[in-house]
Amino acid sequence: PTTIYLKDYSPFGFTVDDVHLTFDLSPSATRVTSRITFSPNPDAADHTFFLHGEELKLIRASIDGQPVTPDATDKGLTCNVPSSSFVWEAEVEIDPAGNTALEGLYMSNGMYCTQCEAEGFRKITYYPDRPDVMSTFTVRINGPEKVLLSNGNPTDQGEGFAEWHDPWPKPAYLFALVAGDLVNHPDRFTTKSGKEVELNIWVRPGDEGKCAFGMEALKKSMTWDEDVYGREYDLDVFNIVAVDDFNMGAMENKGLNIFNSSCVLASPETSTDDNFERIEAIIAHEYFHNWTGNRITCRDWFQLCLKEGLTVFRDAQFTSDMRSEPVKRIRDVIDLRGRQFPEDNGPLSHSVRPDSFVEINNFYTATVYEKGAEVIGMLKTLVGDDAYAKALDLYFERHDGDAATIEDWLAVFQDATGRDLSQFKRWYSQAGTPRVKVAEDWADGTYTLTLSQSTSPTPGQDNKQPQVIPVAVGLLGQNGDEVAQTRVLELTEKEQSFTFDGLSTKPVPSILRGFSAPVILDHDTTSAERAFLLSHDTDPFNRWEAGRSLARETLLAMITDGTAPSGAYLDGVQAVLRDDTLDPAYRALMLGLPGQSELATALHDGGTTPDPQAIWTATETLRQAQAQHMQDLLPRLHGEAQVSSPYQPDADQSGRRALGGAALSLITRLDGGALAASEYAKADNMTLQLSALGCLIKAGKGEAELQAFYDQWEDDRLVIDKWFGLQVSLADPEQTATVGRSLTQHPDFNWKNPNRFRAVFGALAMNHPGFHHASGTAYELLAAWLIRLDPVNPQTTARMCSAFQTWRRYDAARQDLIKVQLDRIAATPDLSRDVTEMITRIRG
Ligand code: B3K
Ligand code: ZN
User: Fold this and answer.
1) What protein residues have CB closer than 5 angstroms to ion ligand 2?
2) Ligand 1 center–CA 703 separation, angstroms
3) Ligand 2 centroid – CA 250 distance (Å)
4) pLDDT of amino acid 678
5) Which atom, in ligand 1's list, is nearest to the CA of 360?
6) By alpha-carbon position, which residue is closest to atom 7 of ligand 1?
7) How far, in Å, is the centroid of ligand 2 from the Cα of 287?
8) CA 112 to CA 162: how far, in whole Å?
9) CA-proximal residue: ligand 1, atom 2 (nearest)
10) What is the pLDDT of residues 40-82, one digit of tens each?
11) How far is 248 from 561, CA to CA, in rounded Å?
12) According to the model, what pLDDT value does residue 640 have?
């Protein structure tokens, strides 16, 4: 396969002035007619007329009305063209019903829908399918379906057809079409400047009752983007469509966002509080792309973080504003450590702006998205809130309508603030998680912090240069008072010292407050000091972090030395949980333990080969100890979940249910599941029902409830996904592969549906002791199914390959078992480019 390099960028030889598309829909023989005006691009050196096109049957083509016979391959076509503007016309035939890859135009439950990002438009018609070619689109859809949608504003419709015009120039990846017998949940929104916008959420009949929450989230997002970023919506309609078969979460097509139904449909009976929060965030994310992604798009796919990092950053700001800032921050850091750190420190490590790829779909990663957002957060911390706002205004003013680059983005900040960002730019080009080591010194009333940074080599990058790391630090006095307020230290050298004067006693430092940089902090401090921070830190993130590091420390000691759970940890957490003045959601997070995969990395980094079974045992032991230690407190914590007012998925109620659920799982360890069984019986929302069911499964008791749950929700595909997932994620390590395998034999295991496939195999990969069971049966099961799915849906298969990315951490026997599976996948005939690239990189 060919590798594409950032350094090889060159503009397309032509500009596109307008695009007219006509679709004659038919499940296995849709005709697409395109009429496109091209002009020579004065900025281009190469004027070769090459149009991408894959899996297309060319029926006819003409230039300025004269039939032509282009040279076509399975990648596209070339043709001799006039030296001035001309009109290209082509008619192609495509097969939406046979499109199982879910890229291009495909069918899901009888409805037509599209997914074009990154390079799916070339499966719809011949076109320069690259983000820097932008044009207005006019679309006519002919078909018997009741609802026919495309981008922009509706211009005409009648029996069997609809026409749409999108006045905003856009790249082809933002094109969308939907056709089906859908029903809508309508609403309206008036923008700040008085523009009336029609809003719709389109769903399959039967799902109408699950749209209200998404609609509220959309309106909140529209208001927020006006208030916080000064961005208004720019079309007469905004449509959202829910589809069951979708490779990712959702897609920001201009004026026609398409969502995985799991990321938009919600009701208290069928969705958990976490589902609600995620739906709100994804609706916001896709909506925010209208400015950061659509109005300003990317010059090429290497610049993906330009829109994704920024839009993730914006949706995180939105969630913090709607809910709780510390809770959102803690959850994001848990996620970063769980998904991005392993990626950044393993064979798939790549920079936030990669400089080469084989298949771009493999780079929609936690690094591009979440680390990309962290980089923007650091930039904002470094320049300050006002300068950030000024820079963003300049960004929108200067680049509206552009296909921009990271250089453009940074230039805006340099111009708005006068700050030199050349070193900061390394965050975009250097892969790997920096480690920051802390040393302290105390003499004559002066406290000195010496910070040093280093980043391990990553694939293709042996030597790392120092980065600009904003380290937010506050100091606490011995009585817990803050003696120095948060100050952002700018670590730019390999090693640097910072002093704090005028202190009467040696302070306790609170370092990396708010997780001010995506780094690993090495701070050799005592458990007494961590316990002190756990009870006194005024920074809520670091207070949580102190508890987390105590938990990590005690677990690591339990695993390596067989010590008993630390009393400092158990007492410290209990004290926090007793404090009713603290937000229940925050207290629920305090009860969490570091993930088992995270512990495996920590052991590996410390020079010990991790044993998944031992990690699991220690985690279970600590949980049991927690339950015993807090047994008097648990009923009270559980009681907080009993909300008397009607169900609301808001921060307050969901926080209380989170705490109650965490308490219930500990109580289950003491009462064998008695309380969970009665809670299950009376649960009237999915959050409580699923948490009680989870407790019962863990206790080995849930058989009757599992069956009852299935019978109750048999007809709800999203709830049945939960039913599949829960059984695998909570399976005992000895049983995980068996449970997974038997679920693949269940009549409802529609493995071609990405949600269902992920429900089982995503959960399998996340069940650390089960996936890494010494027998290797889980590795084998996953590999067999990846091989089976690849010819059907390479994108979803490739994503799941990352389950193997941490394989070099484990013992030789496990590495051998995994290697056999990686080799087996690699040796599969006709393996997709997507999976070939992933396995090649993972094998290293
Ligand atoms: N931009 C899309 C992701 C497209 C993924 C293509 N493989 C969704 C989002 O980030 O909002
Ligand atoms: Zn996005």
Assistant:
1) 308, 311
2) 38
3) 8
4) 97
5) 7
6) 361
7) 9
8) 14
9) 251
10) 999 999 999 999 999 999 999 999 999 999 999 999 999 999 9
11) 43
12) 87
Please measure the distance between the N-terminal and C-terminal CA atoms of the chain and give it in whole angstroms.
16
| Residue in 145, 286, 705, 837 annotated catalytic | 286
The residue count for the chain: 844
What one-character DSSP code corresponds to residue 248?
Answer: S
Instruction: Name the 3-class secondary structure at 715.
Output: coil
The band of 642, judged by pLDDT with boundaries at 50, 70 and 90, is confident
The H-or-E segment that residue 115 falls in is strand 111-115
Q: Whose CA is closest to atom 3 on ligand 1?
A: 251
Q: What is the pLDDT of residues 718-773, one digit of tens each?
A: 999 999 999 999 999 999 999 999 999 999 999 999 999 999 999 999 999 999 99
pLDDT at 828 over 90: yes
Question: How confident is the prediction for the chain on average, in pLDDT?
Answer: 98
Q: What is the structure's pLDDT at 827?
A: 98
DSSP state for residue 461 in the 8-state scheme: B
Question: Does the structure show a pLDDT above 90 at 665?
Answer: yes
Query: Considering the chain, what percentage of its residues have pLDDT values greater than 70?
Result: 100
Q: Which residue lies with its CA nearest to atom 4 of ligand 1?
A: 117
Mean predicted confidence (pLDDT) in 432-451: 97
Tokens coding 753: 């549906």
Instruction: Give the confidence band of 280 by pLDDT, cuts at 50, 70, 90.
Output: very high
Q: Which ligand is nearest to the CA of 120?
A: 1
- State residue 1's pLDDT score: 83
**3-class SS at 62?**
strand
Site to probe by mutation for ligand 1, drawn from 113, 246, 248 as the one with most ligand atoms within 8 Å of Cβ, is 248
* Residue 314, amino acid: R
Per the annotation, the verdict on 163 as an active-site residue is no
pLDDT confidence band for 136 (50 / 70 / 90): very high
Q: What is the DSSP string of 390-455?
A: HHHHHHHHHHTT-EE-HHHHHHHHHHHH----TTTTHHHH--S--EEEEEEEEETTEEEEEEEEE-
Interior angle at CA 337, CA 332 and CA 341, nearest 5: 125
Residues contacting residue 682 through CB under 8 Å, at least 6 positions apart: none
Return d(Cα 588, Cα 657) in angstroms, integer.
Answer: 9
Q: Give the mean pLDDT of 239-256.
A: 99
Which domains, ranges and CATH numbers included, belong to the chain? 4-259 (2.60.40.1730), 714-844 (1.25.50.10)
Quote the crossing angle between the two packed helices 686-698 and 717-729, to the nearest 10°.
30
Residues lining ligand 1, CB < 6 A? 117-118, 248, 250-252, 285-286, 289, 308, 361, 364
Beta bridge mates, 24: 31, 142
Atom of ligand 1 nearest to the CA of 369: 10
Q: Whose CA is nearest to atom 10 of ligand 1?
A: 308
Q: Is the bond into 826 cis (omega within 30 degrees of 0)?
A: no
pLDDT for 641? 77
Distance CA 309, CA 305 (A): 5
Q: Measure the CA–CA gap between 677 and 272, rounded to whole angstroms.
A: 19
DSSP state of 369: I
Burial of residue 157 (CB within 10 Å: 0-12, 13-18, 19+) is middle
How far does the centroid of ligand 1 lie from the alpha carbon of residue 292, in Å? 13
In the numeric block, the tokens 């008097």 are attached to: 632
Angle subtended by helix axes 736-744 and 754-766, to nearest 10: 170
